[in-house]
Write a structure and sequence with these properties.
Distance between the termini: 22 Å
Radius of gyration: 23 Å
Shape: rod-shaped
Low-confidence stretches: 17-23
Structural class: mainly alpha
Oligomer: single chain
CATH class: Alpha Beta
Number of domains: 1
Strand order of the largest sheet: 2-1-3
CATH architecture: 2-Layer Sandwich
Helix content: over 70%
Number of helices: 5
Number of strands: 3
Order of helices and strands: HEHHHEEH
């Protein structure tokens, strides 16, 4: 989302520069509203939540094992080895969780950019920026983009 926001802000800057040269047709969207109302966002969040819950459960179980070992008075070296083993076991699952999050975010961003492009083209708008960079003027495409995404 940060990359999308940065791209949109850059687009706003470029639109300002181009506007000075006579470019017509600027629109804006409320990026947060689009993400929130896009039905695939909640599906992606649900998918990610399931994976997060599974990871959390495994993490909690590993912490309980470690606490039990500490209560049993295991040697520091044994505890350190146990921590390392648990970390090695959880690291790939943590990475998978992060990759899933990234993959889902990229997919949503691509869908949104495609919908924005489609709506802008239909409306004859050449530049679309995030509403946060608009001071005055422009056409609000937010609801049209959400409709395009959810059809």
């Amino acid at each position: 989302m940060k990359k999308l926001l940065a791209a949109i802000i850059l687009s706003g800057f470029l639109a300002t520069m181009a506007g000075a040269q006579g470019l017509v047709g600027m629109g804006f969207i409320d990026v947060q509203k689009v993400f929130k109302e896009y039905k695939e966002t909640s599906k992606a969040q649900g998918e990610l939540a399931k994976k997060e819950e599974a990871f959390k459960k495994e993490f909690d179980e590993s912490q309980k094992k470690l606490q039990e070992a500490e209560k049993q008075g295991k040697a520091k070296e044994d505890l350190d080895k146990m921590k390392d083993d648990l970390e090695k076991k959880l690291a790939p699952k943590r990475e998978e969780l992060l990759k899933t999050n990234e993959k889902l975010t990229i997919r949503l961003q691509q869908d949104i950019v495609k919908a924005v492009t489609t709506v802008a083209k239909k409306m004859g708008i050449e530049v679309v920026v995030d509403k946060q960079v608009v001071i005055t003027g422009g056409t609000d495409l937010t609801d049209m983009v959400v409709s395009e995404l959810n059809k």
